[in-house]
Amino acid sequence: MISKVVFSSTLNKLSLFAIILLISNSLFSQVSYNSDELYGLRKLVPSYSGNAIQVRRTCDNATKNFGFTSCGDIDTSELKKFVVASNPLSSITSGAATAYSLRKLRCTYSGNAITIRRSCDNVTKDIGFTTDGDLDTTTLKAFVLSANPLSAISASASGAFSLRKLRCAYAGNAIEVRRSSDNTTQNIGFTIAGDLDTVALKTFVGASNGFIRTWYDQSGNGRDAVQTTNGNQPQLVNTGTINRQNGMPAVYFSGVSIYLTSTLTGVTATTSGNITTANMVFQSNNSVAGTILSNGDPGANRYNIHTPWNDNNTYLDIGNNGGGGRISTALTWSNLSIGSFQRNGVQGNIWKNGSNALSSNSMAS
Asked: pTM of the prediction?
């Protein structure tokens, strides 16, 4: 049993390869688990889950790790793709006058593949290649699609508020921020990819706190959510650090006195025959009287979403509670979740992360 392999400069490449193959062919399932080192272009220990080798490509010195197939062989398909397929012109001796492709044609080429223009706002961006020489479709998709997540929604939104751009055609800002150091305010917009411009945000707020004075409506209806009283504004930046959830900027509403007010009303939602849906991404504490959306009307046009109330039930109120205007279920939101709340005639639905948590036909039509 060989328990240790020592690489020596006296071995040529052929003999070293033969030694490794001899070990891998004869000891695949018989390797001692207390061996000091083991090297092979085949998997020597069935439970090993790492890679076999790291390869450097000579043309541009890019490196990549390569593992094993399900049979324990080195993954030669990926190896060939990395070393050979990224340079299909490597065997051409005569220089090409021009060369255009959505794959890298010369390994030494260090430029981009294409410049893309996004139709909704005519913004352009250069798109390059992956290390394998393929077009960088991840960056392409992020630029074209991620900046416009509402593009597939046909119905017009009554209101749309987000720290990401929801419509590519929207040309306004995301939020108006007040910094605590001198109570100055400034509008903060989006990056080219549709994310909140956190660079501009941090530059403006500095080491102080940042609060949202205005959350701009991206629906095109101008129903901005505003809070002019400093002490009632939700927080976005805490002593120079942006509040985040799952790595993304997040607005923090810290109590019942912290809220924003919009001209969006509950009349449309409570009018007979109208279908209404509210979609939100949020996280809330349990066992507190939490209200994520309310029009403050206790009567026939009442529209409340409690997520949850202090009894840890989630409520959807549309119209008078005593007249069939409420549905509820035991449901909390202690983790960041996607909540959808819908009324369609007498049918009421609550979804959490795409799963139906409550479906009831007891709502007043």
From this structure: 0.67
